[in-house]
Amino acid sequence: MARFLQIVLNIPLNQAFTYLDCENPENKSRVGFRADLKFGNRRMTGFVISESETLPSECPVEENKIRPILRILDEKPLVTKELLETAKWLSYYYLCSLGEAVSAMIPSGKRESEAGGFSFLEETPEIKARTLSEEQKNAVQGILSSEENLHYLYGATGTGKTEVFMQVCEALLLSGKGVIYLVPEIGLTKQVIEAVVSRFGNTAAVLHSGLTPSQKLSEWHRILNKEARIVIGARSAVFAPVPDLGMIIIDEEHDGSYKSGNTPRYHARQVAMYRCAKAKIPLLMGSATPSVEAWKLMEDGLIKKHVLTKRLAGGAMPEIKCINLSGLSIEGAVSPVLQKEIENTLKEKRQTILFLNRRGFTHFFRCNSCGFELKCKNCSVSLTFHKAEKRLRCHYCGYSVSPPPSCPECGSLDVGYSGFGTEFIETEVKAKFPNARIVRVDTDSSSRKGELAEKIEAFKKGEYDIMLGTQMVAKGLNFPNLKLVGVVLADTGLHMPDFRAAERTFALITQVAGRAGRFFPDGKVLVQTYCPDSEPIAYAVAGKTGEFYASEIATRQMLNFPPFARLVRLVFRAPSEKQAASGAEGAAVILKKILSAAAKNPSKMQEAAVHTEILGPSECPLSKIATNYRQQIILRGPSVALLQYMTHTFRDNFKAPGEVYIEYDADPVSLL
C-alpha cells in the first residue's frame, strides 16, 4: 500500500514535506534514503526522515493533492539513525533547517568553503609504524587507557604527533572499532593520502574535495558496509557514518578551515564533541598552537593534556630573530638583514622559504597626496593589484578595474601601491638574487590541479633555491635542506578587525618557525615586522607559548570574548544599504523584546539573560560583498542555549523584509 513519506529538502524552510511512495511492493522502510522529486516546478533531491501508513495530522494538504516521489535514489539508506539525530542537533545548534543539515552531511560535489584557515600538517605519516620514543609511548598509553573522553596531544612542530595518532588508530582498529581522522583541507596532500593508504590499505577511506560526487558516494558506501574502518578527511568527514565508531581525531585543531563558511555554519570540533559525547567515546585533538578555547579547557582540567617535548629528527628549535622595519627606509620588501642571510644561505647551497600572509601583487592603490585608497565598488575592500594582468582585482567578488593614472579624488599624479604581495616579492627577489632558482607557490600561481604538489616536490629535490609563498607553503612539509625561513611581514593579519587576529598571528609565526631546522641544528627564522613589541609577535618570536596564552586569555576575559562568553552572529545582506540597515534595526527591536521577556521569566535562562547583550546593529567590517550591503548584530552572553533560544524565537516570528537575506552563525570564528 502507498506510504506517506516525510521528506526534508536543502532549502531554508524548517519543515518536512509529505510525498507518496507508490513504487514499494515489498513495503521496505525508506527512512534515511534519498528521493528524487518535484518541488513546485523544480526537480530536487530530498531525504526521507520518517514515514507513516496514514496522512500525518499536521499535513496542511488534502490527501488527494499529495504528489508521489519520482523515484528512490539509493539501494540502502545513506543516513543512519545516529546521523539523523546528529542532523536534528545540528539544525538546532547552528540555526538552519533540518534539510540543510542533512545535505551538509551527505557527500555532494560542492567544494567546501571555509571560514579561512592556514595549517601545517605536522609531518607526512610514515608508511611503516615507527618505534616510539618514551614520550610518544606514554601518550599512546595515556590516551587508550584513560577513563576520560577529551584528550589533547600538545607538542611543538617535529615532536612526532602524527605517529602517535597513527598508532592510536591501529590499536582501535585491532579492537574492532572504527576511527574518523580529520585534517585541514589543505593538509590532505598527495603525500598524506598515499602514506595513509599504504599504511592502512583498503581499510582506509579518504574523503577530500578532489573526489567526484560519485567517488564520494562509493567511499560512503564502503564506510557503511564496514569495508573501510578508518576515515580520513577534511571538515565534512566528521559526519562519516562509521559503524562502531571508537574515536574521532582532530589534527591541527586550531585551524580555521574546520569552521564552515556557508549554511550550516558548523564547526567540526563542536560536531565531533557532540558525536563523541553521545556515543561515549574519546575525542583526541592535537596541535602545536591550540585554539585559545582548547587551551583554557586544558588549564581548567576539562581536557586531558598529553605533552610531547622532544624533536625527533634531532634538529634543534631554530633561532628566531625579529627585524624591526619601522624607521628602515627599505626599497621593496626584503630588508638588508634578510638579504644578507639569503645570500649566505645561497652560498652554502641551502634553501630559503619566504613566507607572506597575503596573495596578489601589491596590496592596494593609494594616493600619496590625499591618502585616497581605491576600493571595490561591490565589496568596499581595498583592491589588490595583479601585475600579470595589469588590473586591480577584488579578492571577495572578483570585480576588476585597470589602475587609474592619477588619483580619482584629488587628481594628483603621485600615486603608488602600498603593501606587497607574492608577485611583487618575486620581482624583487629575482632582481636581488639573479642567479638563484626561484619558485612561487600561492593560490594565484597554482591554479592547475597537481601543480602545487609538483612545485613542492621539485623544491624538496633541490631544484629550486628559494620558495616564495602564502599560507599554503609551509603546510606540513619537511624540506631536509631548508635553512632559512623569512616571514616578510608578520603584521598583515593584525590589522584585521577581528578578535582572533592575535591568536592567528601567533599561531602563524610559531608554526612557520617550526619548519626551519627540522633536520639541521642551524635553522634560522627571520620575522620582519613594523610592530615587534605587539604581544603575539614578541611571544611567538621568543617561543613563549604559555605566556602568550596567559596574556591572550586575560585580554579575552577583560573584553568578554570567547572562551568567556558565547556569540551568535546575524548578518543582514541586501542590495541596498537602506534595506540592510532597516532589516537589522527591525531585528534588533524584536531581539531586545525576546531578551527582556527571558530576563523576567523565572527559569534557568533568567540569570543568563541578565548578562546577555545585543551588540549592534552595525556595518560589517567588510560592509559590502558582491553587490550586497552587510549589517550585523552580535548576541553575546554566558549561555549559548539562551542565544539559540533567542535566535530560534526570532526566526520563527520574524519575516525578513523583501530582499533582505539573514545569515545565522553560532560560535562565529571570524567577524569580518
Description:
- By secondary structure, the chain is α/β, with parallel strands linked by helices.
- It contains 17 helices and 27 strands.
- The strands form 6 sheets. It has a 7-stranded parallel beta sheet with strand order 8-9-7-10-11-6-12, sandwiched between helices. Strands 13-23-22-14-21-20 form a 6-stranded parallel beta sheet, sandwiched between helices. A 5-stranded antiparallel beta sheet has the order 2-1-4-3-5.
- It starts with a strand and ends in a 6-residue tail after the last strand.
Shape: globular
Counting helices, strands and paired strands, the structural category is: alpha/beta
Rounded average pLDDT: 86
Weakly predicted, low-confidence segments: 115-121
The largest sheet is:
7 strands, parallel
Radius of gyration: 26 Å
Ordered list of secondary-structure elements with their pairings:
Elements: E1 3-9, E2 17-21, E3 34-39, E4 42-52, E5 71-72, H1 81-93, H2 98-105, H3 134-145, E6 150-155, H4 161-174, E7 178-182, H5 190-200, E8 204-207, H6 213-224, E9 230-233, E10 245-251, H7 268-279, E11 283-287, H8 292-299, E12 304-308, E13 319-324, H9 336-347, E14 351-355, E15 364-367, E16 384-386, E17 391-393, E18 400-401, E19 415-418, H10 422-432, E20 438-441, H11 451-460, E21 466-469, E22 482-487, H12 501-513, E23 524-529, H13 535-542, H14 545-559, E24 566-574, H15 577-600, H16 604-610, E25 613-625, E26 628-637, H17 640-653, E27 661-666
Helix pairs in contact: 1-2, 3-4, 12-13, 13-14, 15-16, 15-17
